[in-house]
Design brief:
- It is built from four helices and no strands.
- α1 runs antiparallel to α2 and α1 runs antiparallel to α4.
- The protein is globular.
- The protein starts with a helix and ends in a 5-residue tail after the last helix.
């Protein structure tokens, strides 16, 4: 499986996990929440909002455009901290996020 296909599969699994954990939201945050200059929009969005409304769409856009994917990627530590109060319920999501980190940090072969 190509890296692109693996990343797409990982993103779909993350979305499904968010739905299973009732973290998926029907409507986006307020438009001004997206103008944050902080990493992960920590000052304007919950971690799961950033994942759903920022990371997933950006990653799909890169895949759809055939653009290079990030190669230095580590979002799991942030989510381990951000979701620590929701543990162990969020463990399946954290496992999937780690899988995405691992996929994107592989050297192209």
């Amino acid at each position: 499986m190509s890296i692109q296909n693996q990343v797409r599969h990982d993103l779909q699994a993350i979305e499904q996990s968010m739905r299973d954990l009732a973290l998926w939201q029907a409507s986006p945050p307020a438009p001004e929440a997206f103008s944050s200059s902080e990493p992960f929009c920590v000052d304007s969005m919950l971690a799961e909002e950033w994942l759903q409304w920022v990371l997933l769409p950006r990653m799909y856009a890169l895949l759809d455009a055939g653009a290079p994917l990030p190669t230095r990627f580590a979002i799991t530590p942030y989510f381990e901290e951000a979701l620590k109060d929701k543990q162990p319920n969020c463990l399946p999501l954290l496992v999937l996020l780690q899988r995405l980190d691992n996929t994107l940090n592989k050297e192209p072969g």
